[in-house]
Amino acid sequence: MSSLAANHFNGGCLWKYQVSKVGKFRIRATWMASSSTPAQSMEFGEGKTNKLRIGVLGASGYTGSEIIRLLRNHPHFQITLMTADRKAGQSIESVFPHLVTQDLPNLVAVKDADFSAVDAVFCCLPHGTTQEIIKSLPTNLKIVDLSADFRLQDIAEYEEWYGQPHKATALQKEAVYGLTEISRKEIQSARLVANPGCYPTSVQLPLIPLIKSNLIEVRNIIIDSKSGVSGAGRGAKEANLYTEIAEGIHSYGITRHRHVPEIEQGLSEAANSKVTVSFTPHLMPMSRGMQSTIYVEMAPGVTTQDLKDHLGNYYEHEEFVVLLKNKEVPHTRHVRGSNYCLMNVFPDRIPGRAIIISVIDNLVKGASGQALQNLNLMMGIPENLGLSCLPLFP
Ligand SMILES: NC(=O)C1=CN([C@@H]2O[C@H](COP(=O)(O)OP(=O)(O)OC[C@H]3O[C@@H](n4cnc5c(N)ncnc54)[C@H](OP(=O)(O)O)[C@@H]3O)[C@@H](O)[C@H]2O)C=CC1
Ligand SMILES: CC(=O)N[C@@H](CCC(=O)OP(=O)(O)O)C(=O)O
């Protein structure tokens, strides 16, 4: 059993956290220790709520609605601003009837938003639009951006894969790539975090630790990924009609999906050399969930058990990344609606190769859940606040 402690200021009080770990699971205890100065409490916002005031930009979209759902169970965050584009002016229950029981502000257009009543924002907007909107936000705000706009360090690469020049290059330099379990230290001190894409999360969580320890070769990495349709957002698109999606699957973006440079950026950094991957995503007839099946070549003398042992040790103390035991096969059903990434490693029939399978919920660990983990970290509070719900099953 181990423990770690953290302090933060909220509503004029210093809250002390003691996080105790027993094996894989964390038990959290909180208590109020003493009064803080007004200046310190400013860090967490002022006003009637005594909570950190959160803006959700793009609250009428799928990832925005997941942020709202997760924040329902957050002890220190309260939503005070929600924006939409076409749906500006509407109430949240008219857009998402499942949120009717929540006491939330109406949706406003970004141009009409009052950011003086906000301490931090989740930016759940389409890429391209996001850069200019973030550029115009007050610089005191903490921001977690769920779009792809600040993920690629090389702006020439951004232009190549996203088909438009980057319009906020200074902010791009400031942004920290938010793959939580890998870059926790950098995220803690960041003001702007670029939340990873869903496919890159499912691929990098298993591969980065193995590459860093030279357990797999960085050539011939083949990634076969499958996503639920919510990955494409809520906007109406002909290709996403029930009649186009149901009872069939199809690949898309073969060799040119915009997550290729993001995956290669993360793996190259881990390898300290340029890594090129084969990546093919598929659209599945399911509303949410994502699986990546990854075929790798092991380094000379390395066995699949070595890969398992390493991933097991690497993630031993992580709440949200779990290496399955024995030959258990990860299943998207087992992460549905939760912030978990489940993974396992299997021997391939081809000697020297291994098959790694990882699953996440694209909207939670692949988007809003990881974004909340990151904002918790940026605020110096326990990373799992609002996130420790079990998956929906069946
Ligand atoms: N869906 C997923 O699984 C994942 C998505 N992401 C990324 O997160 C971001 C949000 O995705 P998602 O929630 O799926 O998208 P949605 O299409 O479901 O929602 C987009 C939101 O942005 C608003 N919006 C659209 N255009 C504009 C604009 N020009 N100005 C201001 N607001 C605008 C929409 O408002 P309105 O409804 O009124 O039109 C809506 O609230 C995207 O960048 C996406 O790529 C990242 C990881 C996973
Ligand atoms: C099924 C589907 O369409 N998925 C989206 C990826 C969703 C996501 O994570 O992408 P960003 O955050 O990078 O936008 C796609 O392939 O473009």
Automatic annotation (TrEMBL):
It catalyses: N-acetyl-L-glutamate 5-semialdehyde + phosphate + NADP(+) = N-acetyl-L-glutamyl 5-phosphate + NADPH + H(+). Its EC number is 1.2.1.38. The keyword Transmembrane does not apply. CDD domains: AGPR_1_C, AGPR_1_N. Residues 53-190 form the Semialdehyde dehydrogenase NAD-binding domain. Pathway: Amino-acid biosynthesis; L-arginine biosynthesis; N(2)-acetyl-L-ornithine from L-glutamate: step 3/4. GO terms for molecular function: N-acetyl-gamma-glutamyl-phosphate reductase activity; NAD binding; NADP+ binding. Keywords: Amino-acid biosynthesis, Arginine biosynthesis, NADP, Oxidoreductase. One of its GO terms (biological process) is L-arginine biosynthetic process. The active site is at residue 198. Belongs to the NAGSA dehydrogenase family. Type 1 subfamily. HAMAP family: ArgC_type1 (MF_00150). This is Probable N-acetyl-gamma-glutamyl-phosphate reductase, chloroplastic. It comes from Anisodus tanguticus.
